[in-house]
Amino acid sequence: MSLYKDYINEIEERKNQGLNPKPIDGAELLSEVIAQIKDTANEYREDSLKLFIYNVLPGTTSAAGVKAKFLKEIILGEVVVSEITPAFAFELLSHMKGGPSIAVLLDLALGNDVAIAEQAAKVLKTQVFLYDADLDRLKEAFLAGNVIAKDIVESYAKAEFFTKLPEVAEKIEVVTFIAGEGDISTDLLSPGNQAHSRSDRELHGQCMISPEAQKEIRALQTLHPGKSVMLIAEKGTMGVGSSRMSGVNNVALWTGKQASPYVPFVNIAPIVGGTNGISPIFLTTVDVTGGIGLDLKNWVKKTDAEGKVVLNEKGEPVLEEVYSVATGTVLTINTKAKKLYNGEKELIDIAKALTPQKMEFIKAGGSYAIVFGKKIQTFAAKLLGTPAPVVFAPSKEISIEGQGLTAVEKIFNKNAVGVTSGKVLHAGSDVRVEVNIVGSQDTTGLMTAQELEAMAATVISPIVDGAYQSGCHTASVWDKKAQANIPKLMKFMNDFGLITARDPKGEYHSMTDVIHKVLNDITIDDWAIIIGGDSHTRMSKGVAFGADSGTVALALATGEASMPIPESVKVTFKGDMKQHMDFRDVVHATQSQMLKQFGGENVFQGRIIEVHIGTLLADQAFTFTDWTAEMKAKASICISQDDTLIESLEIAKSRIQIMIDKGMDNKNRVLQGLINKANKRIEEIKSGDKPALAPDTNAKYYAEVVIDLDIIEEPMIADPDVNNEDISKRYTHDTIRDLSFYGGDKKVDLGFVGSCMVHKDDLKIVSQMLKNLEKQNGEVKFNAPLVVAAPTYNIIDELKAEGDWEYLQKYSGFEFSDLLPKNNARTEYENIMYLERPGCNLCMGNQEKAAKGDTVMATSTRLFQGRVVEDSERKKGESLLASTPVVVLSAILGRIPTIEEYKVSVEGINLTKFKPISTK
């Protein structure tokens, strides 16, 4: 009874928060619940029945195993529970998705009682989450002549688990709710500072947008029963900045429908829209939940009589409204005509949101069911020796005679599975691809673990070359939330087969290295496909896609991902960098020059940026690819020279070896396998058998952008422009200004050098600038705090060996200690330099934050409202993004420097290591 009483106490605590009982996932607690159900005189029996039926997480949770076993006993008549008949027990099993429930159903279907076997078979025909062990049992019985097994296999071959589902409604009525004007960051839907609660779906749902917005959504639902509320980004893109499954989960929780009456707080079918569409990684997450994402195009650029775009006094396109989506507007999505209507009036074509593949996701309640369903149908047809009937929408295969391949097209063709043999595919083709590297991060990892349990996966797919579970987003503060969540996460992922930042057995030192840096190192092939649970999964080798926790789970479980081959934009460079410029300035200038070249149109959005940056090593090149998340690109690819790629791979090998030396390799020797693969790739390049990845000369691009290095005269700063009169222009990453714009007098309250945008050379720049300034002024005095967080421990070790860390220590007022980790987030800062633990630190916003209302100058990637700094009553918080030298000098001066001050501070420091290569 002790666990149940503890649970009762927790239920009472949650009642005070307006929450329902937390779903049960543990075997021990559910065993007590079942004991109370069996005891007909037990005072808790009625409550225990409700908990057993309605409040147990399905899949491979230990509780699901206990539930499935008890239901089997009821079906076999070994236990009688008047409220749960055998027929109801079968229904409950049908909602448990996989794992233990499938094992029980197979036991019953292949058992001796024919009546029970037929009932079990009926349920099994509706299930799709079967793994090799389940299919092997079915195959063995089939080959032995079992009639029931044959019946199930024949049903699977016909894909009746899909064909017998209800069709998607022809008309879906929605009522609009404008979540905000301008780009909607997933931070609004699932704030980073609430990351600790993401796996507690009901609790986390309370943080979406605001309590006022939640009340307004409920009011719309009351006023419009039967209609779905569609969340909208007016004059912006929905879901930018992150791939968060928790953001989509929250939207579904408030506006979707319950996936199963017996599984609490798991909702599906959210509907979202944006004037400029949906961010690509967010749209993937919407697909996971069987939702709909609409590109509304309800504001367009105004044109004059000659068809030219009208510009305002700032030189920006003037927008005019084509139709209104004001909150409370009732619209109709016609899934047959693939149009959006207001009453009888046709508004726009929405065919891209309702492709045959997406319609299947909607019908099946999510993309997972389709992925697993296709696998099962293929298995069954092969076992029967017959062709699989065409049930699912055929993969879209676009092949253009005489047209060469872009870099991403080459990678997809190499890794594609299930496509027509010998066919060369171009952009727009729908492709299943094998995934080489997978990354799970720590604030979404618990959700990934839940997804793996829900899809009944127990071990990593053998075709994945390597997978890593990070600890970087919770590195700053080892508080009670982290202590409760992280060890549990690390054990689950370690058992599943991932390399983990923390060793559950405590045999190696905890690594809080930034996930993107680790993935960048363990990617040892420029032809690789990488999937990671974070929008900044954008490696400088191969092609990497940031993904939601569910897509990460699917990649871990199956070793595959499905998506269309994206279009590419080619980026090349001309001219020479000024000696005083940092490569970060090139990154910002790329965005600025691209927008100017295309009249304000972001040609990068939703596409691959193929950047010809071949003279930069992987660490430095990552600064560019990392930023492409802020350019709203789907992904990016670095085209590297052979010798540069070899050097990058040698560095990767050395860092993987350090991980091995620390004891991080697992029983499958995954890390050693990566070194072996790197050696093979190096030999291929050296021998000329397979040079570094490059596009064909006759490849076709959506657009080509040439960045002129000669015109980059000053450091470039990405400004959130928090006071722009046009709300939609605030907190985008598109406002890029040069240093002189600020006149040398804009106050800076805090500087931050860290997160994934910096590498070892950035930390060396900090050291060298301190030396410069000390020599010039006799001392270094900070007029604002400077927070420095190295991305990895390796960098610190190398800085110590090279003498730079000692100099950083000299000027620091605080240095992290792994022996004494902080257990409370810092809320106040002194005007000193803080050497913080490797990890995300301020960039993540879930632990450390700047003081409310501060102006922060940072090297990080996030300038969204409330992320790094929240607003105060006195002023809006703002996070400006710049290069390391600008950040350091801003903290020392307490203001943004003039160009003259900047040039003096970086004198003699080699900031410019980038020289463009000819693409002719």
Automatic annotation (TrEMBL):
One of its GO terms (cellular component) is cytosol. Pfam families: Aconitase (PF00330), Aconitase_2_N (PF06434), Aconitase_B_N (PF11791). InterPro entries: Acnase/IPM_dHydase_lsu_aba_1/3, Acoase/IPM_deHydtase_lsu_aba, Aconitase/3IPM_dehydase_swvl, Aconitase/IPM_isomerase, Aconitase_4Fe-4S_dom, Aconitase_B_HEAT-like_dom, Aconitase_B_HEAT-like_dom_sf, Aconitase_B_swivel. One of its GO terms (biological process) is propionate catabolic process, 2-methylcitrate cycle. Keywords: Iron, Iron-sulfur, Lyase, Metal-binding. SUPFAM superfamilies: Aconitase B, N-terminal domain, Aconitase iron-sulfur domain, LeuD/IlvD-like. NCBIfam families: PRK09238.1. GO terms for molecular function: 2-methylisocitrate dehydratase activity; 4 iron, 4 sulfur cluster binding; aconitate hydratase activity; metal ion binding. Residues 176-405 form the Aconitase B swivel domain. Gene3D superfamilies: Aconitase, Domain 2, Aconitase, domain 3, Aconitase, domain 4, Aconitate B, HEAT-like domain. Residues 409-894 form the Aconitase/3-isopropylmalate dehydratase large subunit alpha/beta/alpha domain. Its EC number is 4.2.1.3, 4.2.1.99. Residues 6-162 form the Aconitase B HEAT-like domain. This is Bifunctional aconitate hydratase 2/2-methylisocitrate dehydratase. It comes from the Bacteria.
